[in-house]
Each structure stands twice: as structure tokens, then as C-alpha cells.
Design brief:
Layout lengths: L3 E2 L5 E5 L2 H4 L7 H7 L15 H15 L3 E5 L2 H4 L8 H16 L3 E7 L5 H5 L8 H16 L5 E6 L1 H11 L9 H26 L7 E13 L5 H24 L21 E16 L3 E6 L5 E2 L9 H14 L3 E6 L9 H17 L4 E7 L18 E4 L4 E4 L1 H12 L1 E2 L1 H7 L5 E2 L2
Parallel strand pairs: 2-3, 2-11, 3-4, 4-5, 5-6, 6-7, 7-10, 10-11
Antiparallel strand pairs: 1-14, 7-8, 9-15, 12-13
The structure holds 5-hydroxymethyl-3,4-dihydroxypiperidine.
């Protein structure tokens, strides 16, 4: 393993989402989904990490961890509990939280929408309703007017493709549908909401000296043919790539609508992102299957590949493959807005971090402007339908006592943040065991 050295302006951070850590909110679609019994371990985001109450303690931990930046989400339902009615308490809470981050010189990257929304929005039909765009923009305007003086970096929408796949194809997330027409409607609205929010945020902040950066956190995967010699597996991989991520990258990045989202440039040709956000976790091996009209592909894990506790393949090289492609296409700074793994024992997380940062370091050496790395996640939290049972945290959390514990990975990451290097000596202290494999 090599020593890695990162540039002085490279920022290391952590990422979280409001619903996954805050607890205490019942006015959102995910609380309702949990109440309906959809969470595998029967936990609820009502508890999570009680971060809403404990944010000072958590920010103290982030400061000790030494991160340069932190990606946090806002809970829309706390800020706009009823349509058009904003909560003073909600926005003041975030003012306080973000001010505290800044006091510790931790640069905030704020996510405006990360899978959860108010119940009133869900009841109106969520993103399927055309009015969703104006509803979202009203919320964005309020937030940027109130928080803009503290925040210059924004993610409008997190992983629209994941929300749509689980919510409208598999039906395991709210709104729990299996309806491709509804999915396409919702997808169009999400893309348009981003395009208009991008323009609005810049409009609101145009007089400010500090540049405002706005982008999307895209969930990006590598799709490759299960069988190298099977043309149909190749074709199915390309199609998966196009449908799962290609149409969102082009739609949200350049305002270019591709089928089935539409055609042309409804908002005009342009650039609608200041960085490309990459949430990278894994690769899928694609096998063509003929089972019309539902399926044309199966997503499989490569034979003998290392996997995490959720069975996701660990494939660090995929990060480079995606980053190179995005740089070639968009010529914009790249932020790794999420990267991390589910590892109950914290057995292979340090190795995972090293292997992915090695890819980042090689990309930088090749002149590709990867500027930030946000580890997903700061602390074990509510992992959507997995509930409390899928720990991705640098810190462990005991949900009964709400005690936070430093993991070996957190200590490793602390040294990485402090020194912007990974030395052989650090590797010998922190990287203890390699990955589990399927075989
Ligand atoms: O926890 C999620 C996060 O909310 C979005 N990206 C993937 C993470 C791990 O599944």
C-alpha cells in the first residue's frame, strides 16, 4: 500500500441527512412509512440519533474529528410544516446549527432535499404533482434568504434516481408504487425543480462576494456486463446506465431532457451545476433477462467479489471510472458527496477508506479536479428501510442510551483530516483486516 498525500486545498468531510439522524419529527413521509410497518427492524426515524436535541455534542465530535467540511440536510417538514407557513423555530434551529459548524471552521454543504418531505406535500401527490416544483421553490427561497449568509455550498436534491427506483419501481419506499408512468412524471418534476432551484439560488445570492456553489448529489454506480462475451449483457448494462443515471446527469447538469423524460431543453441550453456531486458505493454486474415488460436486466454481484454487510460489492476502481467520465463530459470540479460502507464490526472500513482515497489521489495526480471527499457517514443512523440495523458510521451509536463511540475508522479519518496524508505507519496502525468475500 502506498503513502498518499492530498493537496492543501483538498477538503475532507462527513455527510449526513436530516431524517436519518435528527429524530423527533412526525410530519414527514418517512415517519408515516415507518408507522405503516415497512422498516425491516421496526425502528423509526422518530428516534434515530436524537441529533435535533444533541447537535451541539455531535458538532463537538465533528470538530474533534477534524473535518474541514460537513454535508448536512435540512428537514423540509420542520421548516415549512404547512404549505406556505414557515416555522421560526425550525429555521432558527438550523441557523444555530450551521453557525456552530462555522464557529469550528467546518464549512457547511447544505442539502435541501434528501428523500423526506412534509406530509402535506405527500398528500398532494408528492413529486408527481406539477405543483411540486413551485412548492419546492417556495421552500428553497425561504431557506436561502434565511441561511444564505452562512452557507455558500448547496446540494439541491440528493439521489433522485434512488428515490424513484425504490419509490416507483420496487415500491419499497414511499410512496410505495410500482408505476412507471407516475415515476416518469415525478422524475421530470425533480429535474425541473433542480434546474429552477439552481437559477433561483444564484439569483438570490448574485450580489455576494463569496461564490455560491450549487449541484446535485448523484447516486452513481458502475454497470458492467455479467458475461463479457454476451452482447445482450453489454446492451443491458448500457441501458441500465442510461436510465438509472444518464438521464439525470444530463437533465440536471445541462437541462437536456432525454427520453423517457422528454426531449430538448425546456429551460434553455446551459450549465445548471457548479460541481458534479458523486455518491459512490458499488458496481452492478448486469445480466440480460427476457421477462417483458417488467425486466430486461438482473443486477448481480461479480463472482468472488468482496462485499459489505449489505451484500454490496466493494469496487474502489469504479470511483475512478465514473470520475474520469464525468470530468470528460462536464469539465467541472468533482465532489465525492458520499462514499462509505456498511460494516458492523468496523473490520474493513479503514481498508475501504484507504482504497477509495487512493483512487481519489490518483485522479488528482492525473489532473482531474476532485476537490472534496465526504465520508458517508459521520455516525450510524437510520438507514431507510434497513432502519437502525445497517451501520455506516465512523462513530457507533447506542440508540438506547444515545452514546456515541469512536470507532477505529474515526481515529483513522481523524488523522487523515489532520495531516491530509495516509502514511505506511498509519496503515499499519489502522488497517487491520481486508474485505469479506462472497465465496
Ligand atoms: O444512507 C444513504 C443515503 O441517505 C443516500 N446515499 C446512500 C446512503 C447509504 O445507503
Amino acid at each position: 500500500m502506498e503513502t498518499l498525500v492530498f493537496p492543501k486545498d483538498f477538503l475532507f468531510g462527513t455527510a449526513t441527512a436530516a431524517l436519518q439522524i435528527e429524530g423527533g419529527d412526525t410530519n414527514n413521509n418517512w415517519y408515516q412509512w415507518a408507522q405503516q410497518g415497512h422498516i425491516k427492524d421496526h425502528s423509526s426515524p422518530l428516534r434515530a440519533n436524537e441529533h435535533w436535541k444533541r447537535f451541539k455534542e455531535d458538532i463537538q465530535l465533528l470538530a474533534e474529528l477534524g473535518v474541514h467540511t460537513h454535508r448536512l440536510g435540512l428537514e423540509w417538514s420542520r421548516i415549512e410544516p404547512k404549505p406556505g407557513t414557515f416555522s421560526q423555530e425550525g429555521i432558527e434551529h438550523y441557523l444555530e446549527e450551521i453557525s456552530l459548524l462555522r464557529k469550528h471552521t467546518i464549512r457547511p454543504l447544505v442539502t435541501l432535499y434528501h428523500f423526506s418531505h412534509p406530509l402535506w406535500f405527500e398528500e398532494k401527490g408528492g413529486w408527481e404533482n406539477e405543483e411540486s416544483i413551485q412548492d419546492f421553490l417556495r421552500y428553497v427561497r425561504f431557506v436561502v434568504e434565511k441561511l444564505g449568509h452562512l452557507v455558500s455550498d448547496w446540494v439541491t436534491i440528493n439521489e433522485p434516481n434512488v428515490f424513484l427506483s425504490y419509490g416507483y419501481v420496487l415500491g419499497t419506499w414511499p410512496p410505495g408504487k410500482q408505476d412507471s408512468q407516475a415515476m416518469i412524471r415525478a422524475a421530470r418534476h425533480l429535474v425541473l425543480a433542480h434546474l429552477q432551484a439552481y437559477t433561483l439560488i444564484h439569483e438570490l445570492r448574485k450580489k455576494e462576494k463569496e461564490p455560491t456553489l450549487v449541484g446535485v448529489a448523484h447516486h452513481l454506480r458502475v454497470f458492467s456486463p455479467f458475461c463479457q462475451f454476451c452482447p445482450l449483457d453489454h446492451l443491458a448494462s448500457l441501458l441500465n446506465d442510461y436510465i438509472f443515471q444518464g438521464i439525470f446527469l444530463e437533465g440536471m447538469g445541462r437541462g437536456r431532457f432525454l427520453p423517457p423524460l422528454g426531449v430538448g431543453y425546456p429551460m434553455g441550453k446551459g450549465r445548471f451545476q457548479d460541481f458534479v456531486g458523486i455518491n459512490y458505493y458499488s458496481r452492478d454486474k448486469i445480466q440480460f433477462v427476457w421477462n417483458p415488460p417488467e425486466l430486461f436486466a438482473k443486477r448481480l454481484v461479480a463472482k468472488n467479489a468482496p462485499t459489505n454487510n449489505l451484500g454490496w460489492e466493494i469496487y474502489p476502481k469504479g470511483l475512478s471510472l465514473l470520475a474520469k467520465r464525468l470530468w470528460k463530459t462536464y469539465r467541472l470540479p468533482l465532489f465525492i458527496t458520499e462514499n462509505g460502507t456498511c460494516d458492523k464490526e468496523d473490520a474493513f472500513r479503514p481498508q475501504f477508506i484507504y482504497d477509495h482515497l487512493k483512487e481519489v489521489s490518483e485522479l488528482i495526480a492525473q489532473g482531474i479536479p476532485v476537490k472534496r471527499y465526504y465520508h458517508w457517514t459521520f455516525i450510524d443512523n437510520f438507514e431507510w428501510i434497513e432502519g437502525e440495523s445497517a451501520p455506516f458510521g465512523l462513530f457507533a451509536n447506542n440508540y438506547d442510551t444515545q452514546t456515541r463511540t469512536w470507532r477505529n475508522s474515526a481515529r483513522f479519518y481523524q488523522e487523515i483530516c489532520r495531516t491530509r496524508t495516509i502514511t505506511q505507519e498509519m496503515l499499519s496502525r489502522y488497517v487491520q483486516s481486508a474485505y469479506h468475500s462472497l465465496s
